[in-house]
Give the backbone structure.
Amino acid sequence: YLAAVDSHPDLVLSDVARSSLSDRQMRALATYVQDLGGGFILAGGENIHGAEGGYSKTDVERILPITFDAKKPHQSVAMIVVLDKSGSMGSQEMGFAKEASKAPLQFLRDTDGFGIVAFDSTFYWPVRFQKAANRRQMTESINTIVSGGETDVFPALEAAYVELAGNPSEIKHVILMSDGHTPPAYFQTLVTKMADAKITVSTVALGASADNALLSQIAEWGRGRTYFVTDASR
């Protein structure tokens, strides 16, 4: 029906099913709103929200501030950050890297899994892989990481693979952050095995001294993304 508001007729659709309107009618409605300045109100109900897709991908959706795409159910996530803590990481860079390592905890659900492997010439788990619900203790553990030592990526990355290989989560992801060069190793073999186990690997090259070429290849083999960061504060 039409309602006069400030002398401008507004069209109101109250729980009108998508099947009740033709494509031509919806195009006319969009023209009325976008080109002629007409007002439009859509009131939802069972006929709209109960229908599969509703007005998704139609001209009606195009003139509304919402979409009708159904929300996908949450997928379980298992994530491990592999963090370079070698001596080349200055105190400021190390601080930013630790803050970046904490960031996923803001977005993971309590039931998701999270862990951190920190490495120099050896590696250890400042945050053992566990449920993300324990955020406070995880954050405190991340704060204790101190830089020092040389750079050897492979053992830490392999440890992340071993941890996630048999994990049943629907999404398994590793983020590798490093600012230096590492001894040669069978990275392609390892990361290909990770990808075959449905573990994606993304990389962050921290600064100009990082082995950007290797980190880019690891992300490619791991079907992830790679980022080159010249300013650690970013």
